[in-house]
Fold RNA polymerase sigma factor.
Amino acid sequence: MTAIEFSNVIQRVAQSLRPVAFNLTRDTDDAKDLVQETVLKALMNREKFKTGTNLKAWLYTIMRNTFINNYNKITKRSSNIDSSEYLQYLNTDENYITQNKGTATFVMNDINKAIAGLSEEHRTPFMMYYIGFKYTEIAEKLQIPIGTVKNRIHIARKELKQTLKVYKQDA
């Protein structure tokens, strides 16, 4: 199929794309733009079309992918965080900004004390899980059933939650 024949066929089929484009965009002007962009992409990628296959389906695929890509671009653009409230800190001298790490130190001391207060049979699997071991790895290393590992970790969490309930934030 020559380029002119291909262009003519595309123009005829493009009319049937408009209702689908409108369903996607829900706006007449956006639907026309989507069809136009689809036709342009089809003409630019003529060599990728295999003669004898369904041209209409190929165009629908191009249109759907174009719509999805445009939608993703729009949502990324509109989901930027408004950082204007932080602009006041941009030109401040860093020597005047200090951080109080005392609270974090107290919290970590309480957490470490609570973990140390766990029985050895609960603390060991809990700490292994905490540092990244999977249940099956813990069961193999400690030579205990996986159900026992899960139970001991559950009990450790429950005891820690009870011990550290002063830090619970009301949601």
Summary: Residues 6 and 129 are 62 Å apart (CA to CA). The mean pLDDT is 84.
